[in-house]
Write a structure and sequence with these properties.
Strands 2-3-1-4 form a 4-stranded antiparallel beta sheet. It folds into 2 domains: 145 residues, no CATH class; 96 residues, Alpha-Beta Plaits. The protein is of the alpha+beta class.
Length: 291
């Protein structure tokens, strides 16, 4: 009879541990996915910003030494991601390919200018920085004009700010829900041992002595759940990268590592905090309130 009861208690304990690990695993996995979404949304917005082109046209009298000096200036400029030099002959050929007709046959001359197509770094794609960069280029006497889509720059920045704000709000809500779910799971686990806690307290055990085994047990469960979540996240990353390599989801391995370490640390930290307060609650309850 006692053997069957012990088996029942053991099965119930294992079931309790399994439910705690499973619930924590799912919550940590979702938080990790959210973390990857946040860091990649920043990357996607930066990539989109860096597709905006600023074209600098040079006057016809600009010599090769002038354009070479400007190219060297762009190489060392901290705000330039990449640049391409296009001669007026290359520009004329490109126009001919687009319109399907050689416009120079009836114009008699090439009216186009030598130019640089410049892609700026994402951090400098805003109205103020671009105006400063434009003024810097126009200060060159050999520069004829500086052209870029001002409306597109403003539109991109406004939309990215709105999207970032909503991502931040949603992330905060999901993080709060995750903390509450993990806390509820740990409290339910401690609740089943409330009589053991009170019995130990009644025979003279200190609160720290009573809390210690529960905290260590919850830390082990949190660690297991976090490790499983990390493994699942790594598997998800490799799957997405294999099937959608164009997303470049594995490019920034430092941020990926930070998210994975954060998930691991969060699993342990939340387990410890939730168990501490859950055991403290039952330690402070009167015996009559346990029922």
């Amino acid at each position: 009879m006692s053997s069957s009861f012990e088996k029942f208690q053991k099965r119930r304990l294992i079931s309790s541990y399994f439910s705690v690990v499973l619930s924590m695993f799912l919550v940590l996995f979702l938080l990790g996915i959210l973390g990857f979404f946040v860091i990649n949304s920043k990357k996607l917005s930066d990539d989109f910003k860096e597709e905006i082109v600023m074209t600098v046209f040079f006057k016809s009298e600009a010599t090769d030494s002038v354009t070479s000096a400007f190219a060297q200036e762009l190489k060392v400029a901290k705000f330039v991601k990449s640049s391409d030099y296009m001669t007026k002959e290359q520009a004329a050929k490109q126009h001919t390919d687009v319109i399907g007709e050689d416009f120079m046959t009836f114009l008699g001359a090439n009216p186009l200018l030598n130019s640089f197509d410049i892609h700026l770094k994402a951090d400098y794609i805003d109205a103020e920085n671009i105006r400063k960069i434009e003024s810097r280029f126009r200060a060159n006497d050999m520069v004829s004009d500086v052209v870029y889509d001002k409306q597109l720059v403003n539109l991109v920045n406004d939309n990215i700010k709105k999207v970032s704000m909503w991502i931040l709000i949603i992330s905060g809500i999901l993080a709060l829900v995750a903390v509450l779910l993990i806390n509820s799971s740990m409290r339910l686990s401690i609740y089943s041992n409330r009589f053991i806690i009170k019995t130990m307290q009644m025979v003279g055990a200190t609160k720290s002595f009573i809390r210690k085994p529960f905290i260590w047990q919850s830390i082990r469960l949190g660690f297991i759940a976090a490790v499983l979540a990390v493994l699942a996240l790594i598997g998800t990353l490799f799957y997405i990268n294999t099937n959608f390599p164009g997303l470049g989801i594995m490019d920034d391995q430092v941020l990926i590592g930070m998210v994975l370490i954060g998930v691991l640390a969060l699993g342990i930290l939340l387990s410890w905090i939730s168990t501490f307060f859950a055991t403290q609650r039952f330690l402070n309850l009167r015996t009559d309130d346990l029922y």
